[in-house]
Amino acid sequence: MKLIESIDPIIMQLVIVPIFVIGIGIWLALLSKKVYIGPITTMILTLTYNYWYFTSFFPDSKLSFTMISSWCIIFPLISLYLSWFILMQLQSIKDFFLLEPREFD
């Protein structure tokens, strides 16, 4: 906990959290070969991080709908796009190498 508290909140919100939550979402989308797994995972991880952040740094405050920040919407959209793009690129590369050899006239 001391390590996380020692990290600057700006660096945590703009660098570390996006890389981890979007990266894990894309990784799970690649493993499952389903595009929708990426944004769902990213949204769950982002909501979990927000819940942990608000309950640990503001323990006396009441959790409300404002706990959901814009990052909870933006990160899954980025994850959806990247998951879709990477999976389509992998499919096109696979299709390129699986071409049937043709006879030459």
Walk me through what this model shows.
With 105 residues, the chain is mostly helical. Helix content is 73%, strand content 0%. It is built from four helices and no strands. α2 runs parallel beside α4 and α3 runs antiparallel to α4. It starts with a helix and ends in an 8-residue tail after the last helix. The model has no long low-confidence stretch (mean pLDDT 85).
Separate helix tally: 4
Strand content: under 5%
Shape: elongated
Number of strands: 0
The topology string of helices and strands comes to HHHH
Largest sheet: none
Supply the helix-strand structural class.
mainly alpha
The residue-averaged pLDDT reads 85
The separation of the N and C termini measures 70 Å
Helix content: over 70%
C-alpha-based Rg, rounded:
19 Å
Low-confidence stretches: none
Number of domains: 1
Short description:
It is built from four helices and no strands. By secondary structure, the chain is mainly alpha-helical. The chain crosses the membrane at residues 12-30, 36-53, 65-87.
List the SSEs and their pairings.
Blueprint lengths: L1 H5 L2 H24 L4 H21 L13 H27 L8
Keywords: Membrane, Transmembrane, Transmembrane helix
Name the features.
single chain; about 100 residues; mainly alpha; elongated
